[in-house]
Amino acid sequence: MNKDIKKTAVIGMGALGMLYASQISSAFRPDSVCFLADQKRIERYGKMTFTINGTPWSFPIKSPADAEPADLIIIAVKYNALPSALETMASAVGPDTTIISVMNGIDSESIAGKCFGDEKVLYCIAQGMDAMKFGTDLTYTRSGELCLGTRINGQENRLSALTRYFDSAKINYRTESDIVKRLWGKFMLNVGVNQTCMAYEANYAQVLAPGTLYDTLTGAMREVISIAQKEGIALTESDLESYIELLRTLSPEGVPSMRQDGIAHRPSEVEMFSGTVRRLAAKHGLSVPVNDMLYEKIKDMEASY
């Protein structure tokens, strides 16, 4: 049986990194969780005051030189930052460390597995939260849930240890028998909602209203369904409908992470969304006009910053 999880390290002080670090810190002790960061970030963060729903928060932050092997590492960075994050966290990965990624996309687990060993990396999908972070301030009304599953045979004990830990920390989760389909479903949703909200500078209510934005949202998602089916993943129109219903439960004025990047004039994750869709479409000889349009529109927006 995998040993109990006691020490957690988080890499990425974005919305989800702060959300899960605060839940773990509240459930146990402040020193039960730390962030990992390079020295420049540590110095910058030391001058900042972070808040969560208006309450000031502080977290221990360790450099790679000071990090000890963690029982659990949560990767919560943007896609563009994943390579440097893997370098930063390397010293905190021990033989018994379990790694999960709350990143968007469909390949962060395989990238981390190649780096540290597939046996250490479980599948994890974060969904249903409306967390937004601007500057140092995180706000949310829904903490959502994590969907968990094994990636390879022999990970059942790791998954069991993780679910016991989340039970103790009161972190919402569910285990999935078909976690790969769930991963692709969340990817489908993000390809639609993240990109449509960014491209049209819109919130959830605006993209869900009938019209051009809604047609773009669902059109981009349907292109993912076509690719998924070519990849052997049984996504269907009913999956699309269930994810649209999930969107309707979020704060109408809220916006997804990509729109938050656009507001802050940060580089977006467009390569992870329509960039991936376009590459896979080319592999299968499929046409993806909605994602082509979104890719070009978002690239133009970024070039104007």
Automatic annotation (TrEMBL):
Reactions catalysed: (R)-pantoate + NADP(+) = 2-dehydropantoate + NADPH + H(+)
Pathway the protein contributes to: Cofactor biosynthesis; (R)-pantothenate biosynthesis; (R)-pantoate from 3-methyl-2-oxobutanoate: step 2/2
Gene3D superfamilies: N-(1-d-carboxylethyl)-l-norvaline Dehydrogenase, domain 2, NAD(P)-binding Rossmann-like Domain
Domain of life where this protein originates: Bacteria
Entry's transmembrane regions: none
One example GO MF annotation: 2-dehydropantoate 2-reductase activity
Keyword set, alphabetical order: NADP, Oxidoreductase, Pantothenate biosynthesis
Alphabetical list of InterPro entries matching this protein: 6-PGluconate_DH-like_C_sf, 6PGD_dom2, ApbA, KPA_reductase, KPR-Related, KPR_N, NAD(P)-bd_dom_sf
Residues annotated as domain Ketopantoate reductase N-terminal: 9-126
Name by which UniProt lists this protein: 2-dehydropantoate 2-reductase
Lineage of origin: Bacteria, Bacillati, Bacillota, Clostridia, Lachnospirales
